[in-house]
What does this fold into?
Amino acid sequence: MAWFLLFLAGLFEIGWAVGLKYTDGFTRPMPTVLTVISMVISVVLLGLAVKTLPMGTAYAVWTGIGTVGTVLLGIWLLGDPATIVRLACIGLIVAGIAGLKFMA
It folds into this structure.
């Protein structure tokens, strides 16, 4: 269950990271509210996950999920560059997340 909560926390981290772009410097009320709600949910779920998972592992996986998801959504939604080197680096992050999951 802790891994599932951690996965959800990572998804909400993606939501708030991408949401920051849409807040326009926190000047747009609805995107700002949704971003802040996503931040709170993400941290609460992380807090629940670390009750049973090692803190370092959980934090690394949480930020890794957020990083990979945010980069991919940046490419898909915002037109960020999708170079081979960038995608290969994302693959390394995914490999690191998988390694931490299977070694925990």
Summary: Residues 2-103 form one domain. The chain has a mean pLDDT of 95.
